[in-house]
Amino acid sequence: MNSDLLVAFEEYVSVTKALDTQTVSSYLGDLKQLETFTEKTLTKLDTTDVLKFLATFDNKRTLNRKLSSINTFFHFCHIQSFSHEKIKIPMAKVPKNLPKYVSFEEIMQGLETIDRSTVTGLRDYALILFLYASGCRISEALSVQRSDILEGWLKIRFAKGEKERVVPLAPVATEALDKYLEAQDLSSAYIWLNYKGDPLSRISAYKIVKKYLGISPHVLRHSFASSLIIGGADLRVVQELLGHSSLETTQIYTHIQKQNLADTMSSYHPLS
């Protein structure tokens, strides 16, 4: 792969597209895998070469991830006039799995098991409440700095996609956060730290949520959205809070809204 082209593409997806570092790394890895398979430089490939590579993957989700990397790269090449052919292969249709979520009661029960007499316990308690109160992606949450929270509002500066967003934090979450920050004496601009004072890793955050709730941090994000929908929130408001660029992405939660309506009818309508 041409190193100059690689650097330019990496800058494009990192800065212009504002993708997170993990996604950028995945894109570059997929492109190297494609080049190794075809034994050609990427700018010499045509659609047939790409399709032969994609035919080696059975899992549609894996296939779509590779496609996202490839389509983004060739779009970049086309707009930069590195390639005359604009390769664009449609995504494979994948059945939409309904998002897993846990109820408010289940989350609160898990939080009650945390020993808040220690700084670590205060951190774990505050982190889980923070994720459930904000709907943050875990990568966004771990990038939050002290200056990003002001008067109950959270500015998410490292959002996936091209725009930042501001979301309100529930008082119970800000109170838990304040107690944690008061108790820890580590000096850092970042909020979520390990015992050494370094920013908390994704793996550590995953283990914390898994330990007390038995779920991943991303399920807390689904739970945040589901709680709003069940409470009657407008889908477009939920879209804005989650930072989805398309309403179509947020519509995976409409089944919860329908189920809630059905349960209400079943419980209260005389004909049910």
Short summary of the structure?
The chain is mainly alpha-helical. It contains 13 helices and 3 strands.
Figure out the total of helices: 13
Please describe the biggest sheet, giving its number of strands, its sense, and whether it closes into a barrel: 3 strands, antiparallel
The oligomeric status of these chains comes to single chain
Instruction: Give the number of domains.
Output: 2
The CATH superfamily of the largest domain is known as Intergrase catalytic core
Count all strands and give the number. 3
Spatial gap, N to C terminus: 65 Å
Return the string of H and E elements: HHHHHHHEEEHHHHHH
Characterise this structure:
The protein is mainly α. The chain is built from 13 helices and 3 strands. It folds into 2 domains: 77 residues, no CATH class; 163 residues, Intergrase catalytic core (hpI Integrase, Chain A, Orthogonal Bundle), CATH 1.10.443. A 3-stranded antiparallel sheet has the order 1-2-3, with no helix packed on it. The chain is globular and about 60 Å long.
Topology of helices and strands:
Layout: H1 3-16, H2 21-38, H3 47-54, H4 60-79, H5 104-111, H6 119-134, H7 138-142, E1 149-150, E2 153-156, E3 165-168, H8 171-183, H9 202-213, H10 217-230, H11 235-242, H12 247-250, H13 254-268
Antiparallel strand pairs: 1-2, 2-3
Helix pairs in contact: 2-4, 6-8, 6-10
Tags for this entry?
272 residues, mainly alpha, hpI Integrase, Chain A, 2 domains, 3-stranded antiparallel beta sheet, globular
